[in-house]
Amino acid sequence: MKTAGRTLDVFEAFEDVGKPLTLSDLARRLEMPVSSCHGLVGTLKARGYLYAVNRRTLYPTRRILEMARRIVAKDPMLERLAGFLERLRDDTGETVILGKRQDDAVIYLHVVEGLRTIRYSAKPGELKPLHSSAIGKAMLGEIPPADLAAWLAGHPLDAVTENTLVTPESLGGDLAAGRERGYHITRGENVADVMAVATAIHLNGEPLGVAVAGPLERMKTGLAAHTERLLAMKSAVEAGEEHP
Fold first, then answer.
1. What's the domain range around 200?
2. What is the DSSP track for 139-178?
3. pLDDT by residue (tens digit) across 4-62?
4. Number of domains making up the chain
5. How many Cβ atoms are within 10 Å of 61's Cβ, its own excluded?
6. Does any domain span residue 95?
7. pTM (2 decimals)?
8. How far from 171 is each of 35, 159, 168, CA to CA, in Å?
9. Would you give the end-to-end CA distance of the chain in angstroms?
10. Predicted confidence (pLDDT) per residue in 157-188, tens digit
11. Are residues 188 and 112 in the same domain?
12. Using CA atoms, how far apart are residues 35 and 94, in angstroms rounded to an integer?
């Protein structure tokens, strides 16, 4: 477990810095002894994931990028949904996100960035709280009411922003309203100036969440149209239609 985490830390360090690093710089960023870092780096170099830029510095090769592209190209969820997500982005102009529940969080599986200069930005792999994110609410809305009441009573509802719903009563009422209308909304509850609308889509027996997100004031104006397009996409996917 620790070695796997350290390996990922190496690549995240290069992502953060955006330039070659010396062995000592990398060890300092990873907060590990230089000797241990040397062994990890040696393995990654031997496997073709790092190379020596010069006698002192290291940088990742394109191997991990090419591997990631081949893996993503075979993602069964994205093969089915990518075209729908891009069409929804084109129709709304806003950022479209595909996510799934992972324990007590939502993991973003795919993000199609909005077309506007000012837009909501996110990255695949990000984890968001269930109770404060639109996709999280859509996932909670899939839980039977009795089980949901138990979940609400047993989980802390931390304030992510001043708008986050932090009591079981307020969040439970919001989820019930969203379940009734078929979609869920966040108004600055996860990011203060961002609004999102999300719904659950059932694919291969699994609930996934799709959200349209953007600046709060602009989303308020376009909410009705964005929701209509989102629900139309849900119907098309669940009916087995081919993507546009």
1. 75-238
2. HHTTS-HHHHHHHHHHS----SSTT---SHHHHHHHHHHH
3. 899 999 999 999 999 999 999 999 999 999 999 999 999 999 999 999 999 899 999 99
4. 2
5. 14
6. yes
7. 0.81
8. 50, 12, 5
9. 42
10. 999 999 999 999 999 999 999 999 999 999 99
11. yes
12. 48
